[in-house]
Amino acid sequence: MTTKILVTLGPSSMSEKVIKDCEELGVDIFRINLSHTALENVGPAIDSIRQWTEVPICLDSEGAQLRNQVMVDECVSFTDGDIIEIHFEPIVGDARNMSFSPPGIARQFVAGDEISVDFNHLRLRVEEVLEDRCRALVVQRGTVGSNKASDVERELELEPLTEKDNKAIKIGLEKGIRIFALSFTNCLEDVEKMHDVCGADSSIICKIESRSGVENLESILSAADHILIDRGDLSRKIPTEKIPFLQRRIVSIARSHSTPVYVATNLLESMVMHRTPTRAEINDVVSTLLMGGDGLVLAAETAIGEFPVDAVRMIRNLIDETEKWTPNASIHELI
Questions:
Q1: d(C-alpha 237, C-alpha 262), whole Å
Q2: In sequence order, which residues have a C-beta less than 8 Å from that of residue 65 and are 6 or more positions away?
Q3: DSSP class per residue in 142-194
Q4: Of the candidates 174, 161, 242, which has an alpha carbon nearest to the alpha carbon of residue 206?
Q5: pLDDT tens digits in sequence order for the chain, 335 residues long
Q6: Contact yes or no for 267/297 (Cβ under 8 A)
């Protein structure tokens, strides 16, 4: 099977020129990330992409994840010892107030919970639960913007699809979208619910990015059309040093089920700001391909990066070089 290239669209790439350039480089799927796309923009985004290309579109759900909500700006600073009010209903956050999504999820917080926001950029500890809010202490200072992935060190009760997901999927189906990604797939029942919502003729990419998803991998694979290893969110639940080995095991198990497996997060992260990647990133991408990855997913590199087409071109070149590689290749052939 030819290695797939999945490109996330965002402010840096949502234009006719960039999308056509990516199409020429052999992009297989354009991804719309619902975690960073307002519901009212989903339909217009699909319409625009369809005007510019026939490459299939994937709607990627918000899924069962905790995020902080809108902040007053993208650089709100918190200091050790600050007291923060965590409101149960949505508010615009500032240096003393915050809320989380899905709406009302903070009602599940209890005293003693430690909340990590944006990969430990900020840590809060719930000190007191009141009628309409929690009171929390900043135990690790940091700077936080809007809509950042967050974690509590225990399982919360979260539905596999948010209200926004359900509405966006309906829009997508009405516009002919037939590829959907289920974020934070935790168990077989999540996949079955996604199939019920999206219909039998839709293709479901199940994203493995939680401990539960890893533990229930075999049953998820029995119903998934594809899986996607999101190394970033997975590393919020599992120590980072274990991720390379877990990636190899998941790829191996997926291939034993003949289920295509894609890999995402930090493939060419340096290209968000620079025209060329690091040597370590190049080696990581090639290693992922050689271990059997069926597809590569560009996220920030193409959604908000300064060089989206260059990032896609680099992935294309690395795939081409990997497909030419054999263990018997001579030094002369390689250079």
A1: 19
A2: 35, 149, 158, 183, 184, 233
A3: EEE-SS-EEEESS-----SS-HHHHHHHHHHHHTT--EEEETT--SHHHHHHH
A4: 161
A5: 589 999 999 999 999 999 999 999 999 999 999 999 999 999 999 999 999 999 999 999 999 999 999 999 989 999 999 999 999 999 999 999 999 999 899 999 999 999 999 888 899 999 999 999 999 999 999 999 999 999 998 889 999 999 999 999 999 999 999 999 999 999 999 999 999 999 999 999 999 999 999 999 999 999 999 999 999 999 988 999 999 999 999 999 999 999 999 999 999 999 999 999 999 999 999 999 999 999 999 999 999 999 999 999 999 999 999 999 988 888 888 88
A6: yes
Residue (of 262, 214, 223, 316) closest to 60 by Cα position:
262
Distance CA 133, CA 226 (A): 40
Q: Where are the beta strands (DSSP E) in the chain?
A: 4-8, 29-33, 57-60, 66-68, 76-78, 83-87, 97-101, 114-117, 122-129, 133-140, 142-144, 149-152, 179-182, 203-208, 226-230, 261-264, 295-298
Token pair for 126 = 């719930």
Show the tokens assigned to 104.
């009302």
Task: Tell me whether strands 114-117 and 122-129 are parallel, antiparallel or unpaired.
Answer: antiparallel
- Helix, strand or coil for residue 22? helix
**For 312-316, which contacts have Cβ atoms below 8 Å and span 24 or more sequence positions?**
312/5, 312/7, 312/21, 312/22, 312/25, 312/27, 313/25, 314/268, 314/271, 314/276, 314/277, 314/282, 315/5, 315/267, 315/268, 315/285, 316/5, 316/25, 316/26
Taking the mean position of all CA atoms in its chain, how far away is CA 198?
Answer: 19
The identity of residue 5, as a single letter, is I
Residue with tokens 């919502």: 197
CA distance 227 to 208: 7
- Cα 256 from chain centroid? 24
